[in-house]
Write a structure and sequence with these properties.
The protein has eleven helices and 13 strands. The chain has helices at 7-19, 22-29, 33-47, 63-86, 101-118, 172-177, 183-186, 201-207, 224-232, 242-250, 282-302, and strands spanning 52-55, 58-61, 93-99, 122-128, 143-147, 156-160, 163-170, 191-194, 220-221, 237-241, 255-256, 265-268, 270-275.
Length: 303
């Protein structure tokens, strides 16, 4: 039987992947950044493959890293869940939140420390999956952040997390080599697709009055975070929400393809869902108030 990797290494990897930062992972785990980096590299040596792409002081998951992150998120969530069930009721309140892997890694994870600081009495259990999730069939989950379409059914309260801006994004080097939206240039541009996104490239071309390229040979990914990572690496142009790519835009690793000459798409994509019967639950109210305030704050900053 092959030797399993260290649990400490797996925990360091999960924290770094969730927070998109070795530094933030080190703060959460009370380790030095070099210790977290050492644990992750040991894990990569164990598997014989890269789990992170490291560039410009930013880290993003490789496809193999994304696969491991999804499984570890579910595993640690299950461990935390059973520990909470076995703990005396007077201990910290548990709140189970479910969302897509990209929302967990790119938006919610980096902001959770502020919620934990404000509400240390609430223990967050975060799980993720890209597939649609029916909250009414999973009693162990308190809140779902739905993606794409707002679910509506009896007994479920749903609220949008605000309008998002979907932008055509590429690396600065890619933009310099493809600095025009002329039809001849667009025919050669590789358009990166997110298979779960309800917004398609055809929507962007139609909005901007541009001809849809006759040859569409760009790769497709099942995670928005992977589309962003591919664009950073110069593979092509991503059509993604700034909710997932704002950090890369801020640090300059991604720029707007076409600059100010093209328009972006605005759409409600993420929805806060909880059982209507839980609307008086203090822990549910606190989380809902916090996430609605943070998303509204993000909208104001983007204006």
């Amino acid at each position: 039987m092959s030797r399993s990797p260290s649990l400490h290494a797996l925990r360091a990897f999960e924290a770094a992947a969730r927070l998109s930062s070795f530094a933030r992972a080190s703060e959460e785990l009370h380790l030095s950044p070099s210790a977290v980096s050492h644990q992750v590299r040991a894990l990569e040596r164990h598997f014989g493959r890269a789990l992170f792409v490291r560039a410009n002081r930013q880290v993003s998951l490789t496809p193999d890293g994304e696969r491991l992150f999804v499984v570890l998120t579910q595993a640690f969530s299950s461990i935390h869940g059973i520990c909470a069930e076995l703990s005396p009721p007077e201990q910290a309140q548990g709140l189970s939140v479910h969302c897509t892997p990209s929302f967990a890694a790119k938006w919610l994870g980096p902001r959770l420390p502020s919620f934990i600081a404000q509400h240390p009495e609430i223990h967050i259990r975060l799980s993720s999956n890209a597939e649609p999730f029916d909250l009414m069939r999973h009693e162990g989950i308190d809140i779902v952040i739905a993606y794409g379409t707002a679910p509506h059914r009896p007994g479920l309260t749903t609220q949008s997390l605000g309008q998002e801006e979907l932008v055509a994004l590429c690396s600065p080097e890619f933009a310099q080599s493809n600095d025009s939206t002329d039809a001849s240039i667009l025919e050669k541009v590789i358009c990166l697709d997110s298979s779960f996104s309800p917004v398609r490239w055809s929507d962007w071309f139609a909005l901007n009055g541009l001809p849809l390229p006759t040859s569409r040979n760009g790769p497709s990914f099942d995670r928005g975070s992977l589309v962003v990572a591919a664009a950073v690496q110069g593979l092509g142009v991503a059509l993604e929400t700034l909710r997932f790519a704002q950090a890369e835009v801020d640090d300059g690793s991604l720029v707007r393809f076409g600059g100010d000459s093209v328009r972006s798409i605005k759409r409600d994509l993420h929805f806060l869902c909880y059982r209507t019967r839980d609307e008086d639950s203090a822990k549910v109210q606190k989380f809902c108030q916090w996430i609605l305030a943070r998303t509204a704050e993000g909208e104001k900053l983007a204006l």
